[in-house]
Write the structure tokens for this entry.
Amino acid sequence: MKIILIVIISIILIGLIYFFYLGYKSQTGTARGLVNSKLTPCSNKPNCICTEYPDDKTHFTDAIKFDSVEIDNIIKVIESTGGRIVKSTDHYIAATYTSGLFKYVDDFEIRMDTQAKLLHIRSASRVGHSDMGANLKRVENFKRVFLERLK
């Protein structure tokens, strides 16, 4: 009985150490940025969501349509939802979100397409395979808060 308990505790400790290691590892890195004036496509991992590529059904969600928007308003929404701005230009914003316990860092990017009047968003985890839907929830929350502020 003692051996089983020791094995279970050891497995739990190894798991916790691994998750803290991933959190530490995610502290380094940067957002993928733009490729050919578009947000970088998601990899095959299920820890990314992007509005830029509708053919990628597993990673796609709709972009936000706008009539008029200023970068400062987008930055305020990102900051109000817990994001930290890393880079900002006239048409592109890179931010990070950090989780609570394990301190995972996720990249959040927005590209303003002024011709199509769309805000394209990409949210992706820096480490790990799955995000348990965290990036999709983040994008949906950003959309909700952003659209509420436009009213």
About this structure: The longest strand covers residues 105-113.
